[in-house]
Specification:
This protein is α/β, with parallel strands linked by helices. It has two domains: 176 residues, Rossmann fold, CATH 3.40.50; 67 residues, no CATH class. It is 38% helix and 28% strand. The protein is built from nine helices and nine strands. Strands 5-6-7-3-8-9 form a six-stranded mixed sheet, with helices on both faces. A three-stranded antiparallel sheet has the order 2-1-4. Strand 8 and strand 9 form a beta hairpin.
């Protein structure tokens, strides 16, 4: 399970006043607390600039919060204290993930398996399993630099899978993908949920989130403004769909 307690992240930006550029501080994430448990898919929804990526980067140990802490427990309920162990327990995926372009997917997975100190048999078995799970049989031996956007995204998820983390943090994993690639990634998330893994992800596709997420946090201007199951959010706002509920909540915050 992962839990965020009062997370805040402060940045500095320049604003123009007359002919001068003046620096000011602002909170990209402001006192956010949330949790995601085993066998649960939790969505982070919000407009561009709401703070979703900054929040996910702090949860993924890629960015240090200005205030607050992230607590991570393993399957036995033990708190994971050591930073390296925390990072190994998390599979993080974003649109900025970089892969070795001159490797094929199969070669890249073998390379990762060696880094994780797996045996050759473990590497071979795990590689074939991942290729099958993500439906990559037809392009597993192609160079990563020659893959389509959807194929590259599946290769990025394969990178996460090789470490077999207990928590997946996915920042807009289906953004801009074709239907087949998006469906493969959605199936992957469902399969990880069935295995008791935790999936925390952001998306702009509200119809996708409505059917996929067990719970949702809506974020606006760096703050959590609503939370609950998709059904609860619809009931709270008197809405027929999550998309409609999102607009009701967002508009109420902007009044």
């Amino acid at each position: 399970m992962i839990e965020a307690v009062n997370l805040s992240k402060k940045f500095e930006r320049s604003i123009k006043q007359g002919r001068k550029n003046i620096k000011e501080e602002f909170l990209a994430v402001d006192q956010v607390s949330l949790s995601a448990g085993e066998g649960e898919i939790v969505g982070i929804l919000g407009p561009n600039g709401a703070g979703k990526t900054t929040l996910l980067r702090m949860l993924g140990m890629l960015m240090t919060p200005t205030v607050g802490e992230v607590k991570l427990t393993d399957a036995s309920g033990r708190f994971i204290e050591e930073v390296t162990e925390k990072k190994r327990a998390i599979g993080y995926l974003s649109g900025n993930t970089r892969l070795y372009q001159r490797f094929s997917i199969r070669e890249y997975l073998r390379f990762l398996g060696q880094l994780y100190d797996y045996s050759e048999q473990e590497i071979a078995d795990r590689t074939e399993e991942i290729i099958k799970v993500l439906n990559m049989e037809t392009f597993a031996d192609n160079y990563i630099g020659k893959l389509s956007t959807g194929q590259t995204q599946r290769a990025s998820i394969a990178r996460c899978l090789m470490a077999d983390p207990q928590l997946y943090i996915l920042d807009e994993p289906t953004l801009g993908l074709d239907i087949l690639s998006a469906d493969a990634i959605i199936s992957f998330m469902k399969e990880q949920k069935e295995k008791g893994k935790t999936v925390l992800y952001s998306t702009h596709y509200l119809e996708e989130a409505e059917v996929l997420c067990d719970r949702i946090y809506m974020i606006c201007d760096g703050r959590i403004v609503a939370q609950g199951t998709p059904q609860q959010l619809k009931e709270q706002t008197g809405s027929m769909s999550l998309r409609e509920a999102f607009h009701v909540i967002y508009n109420s915050e902007k009044k």
